[in-house]
Amino acid sequence: MRTILVSAFVSLLFALFSTPLAIRIFTRRGYGQLIREDGPAAHATKRGTPTMGGAVIVIATGIGYFVAHSATDTSLSASGLLVLGLMAGLGLVGFIDDFLKIYRQTSLGLRSRTKLAGQAVVGVLFALEVLRYPNAFDLTPASASISFLRDVGPTIGVLPFAVWLVILIQGWSNAVNLTDGLDGLATGAEILVLTAYVLIANWQLRNPCSGVPVAARCYPIRDPLDLAVVAASALGACVGFLWWNAPPARIFMGDTGSLALGGVIAGLAVCTETQLLLTILGGLFVIITLSVVIQVGSFKMTGRRVFRMAPLQHHFELLGWNESTIVIRFWLVAALFVALGLGVFYLEFLPG
């Protein structure tokens, strides 16, 4: 528990006090946000706000994780390092996308196919590595299975598992990216999901399968403590960053942050065997992504739009809702989904 608390505290402090430095550096270098011309008119005032702040979140998460292990003299784990590697790899893809936008002075960075290819490469590497490194109980960071509250059914094989994880990782990194359209919206929702994973991994830590009767309810997770530490580190980094990202934002996370944060929750879902449960915990991200799918599908099939603008948060902007009102109400929706997901997770553990 001390390692979890230290990681959250260190990453929070680092993000809180280093973000103003990043704001000054990015402003001086002209790393400002470029606004879509077809977006809400109110967003024009955000033009030039420093972006790529997600780099602070990624660095703060890593610092919190490693400092906590050093301060408490606990060992690093394969699971924790792999999830951090997934976060950093997707953050790098996002950083390249952000940098190209700034360099070209356009709101378009990497082509969608190129971005998906970068996410796929990172996802395949994660999928292959996460099936290695068995511990003394022959547990690897993940098993080649689809999971809900634990693994469901038999293993599906390495290749299908790799394909499944690529879809999962691309889906969640892009879902957070689509949600990152209003000041603090994605950051606040991410904080809620990460809080859930701190609790889930801690519960799994306290109910291991090693040394208990076969019939007992337990979780065969390789490194639950370290997964809680990773979640706490990312949580602290997001809280520190949100201080400066809350409306009106003084810095944006950019694709650097949104892809990395989508990756870290996908990695936590894989290593805690809660891949499908994440669709409930991250229900807000799912709804916003579906709004884009519905909008594009409807326009291609009928020539009509369901929403005034997608993603969904911009629809409410065009209806006249204040930005802060949308953000707070969407945070409430995210909190309800997290509460539902935690309830489902806990109820499954109870007898009967």
Structure explained in plain terms:
By secondary structure, the chain is mainly α. The protein has one domain. It contains twelve helices and two strands; from the N terminus they run ααααββαααααααα. It has helices spanning 2-29, 54-72, 78-104, 112-129, 158-179, 185-206, 224-245, 254-271, 278-281, 283-302, 312-318, 323-349, and strands at residues 146-147, 151-152. Strands 1-2 form a two-stranded antiparallel sheet. Strand 1 and strand 2 (151-152) form a beta hairpin. Helix 6 runs antiparallel to helix 7 (224-245). It is globular. The model has no long low-confidence stretch (mean pLDDT 92).
Describe the secondary-structure layout.
Blueprint (H helix, E strand, L loop, with lengths): L1 H28 L24 H19 L5 H27 L7 H18 L16 E2 L3 E2 L5 H22 L5 H22 L17 H22 L8 H18 L6 H4 L1 H20 L9 H7 L4 H27 L3
Antiparallel strand pairs: 1-2
Helix pairs in contact: 1-2, 1-7, 2-3, 2-7, 2-8, 3-4, 3-7, 3-8, 4-5, 5-8, 5-10, 6-7, 6-8, 6-12, 7-8
